[in-house]
Amino acid sequence: MKKRSVLISLRKQRNWSQKDVVERLSASYGLHITISYYGMIEQGVRTPKLELALAISSLFERSPDEIFFEQINNKTLGKSTA
Description:
By secondary structure, this protein is mainly α. The protein contains 5 helices and 2 strands. It has helices at 5-13, 18-29, 35-43, 50-59, 64-68; strands at 72-74, 79-81. A two-stranded antiparallel ribbon has the order 1-2. It is globular, with a radius of gyration of 13 Å.
């Protein structure tokens, strides 16, 4: 699976470490994950459950589609699809 570059970029734009994200998920959403697990999500090794994906999306103020689904150009229609 491909790296989630959007997720990595969003985190770096805020000058957050992976630890910062994990702590914010715990404090704001009551979701407790390890820094290692979050790193695997960023690397595309793990796919988060829906509740966690929605919390991450909310934390970064983006839609889950934007973070977790790769946009692919459809040559026939000239549009992006998830």
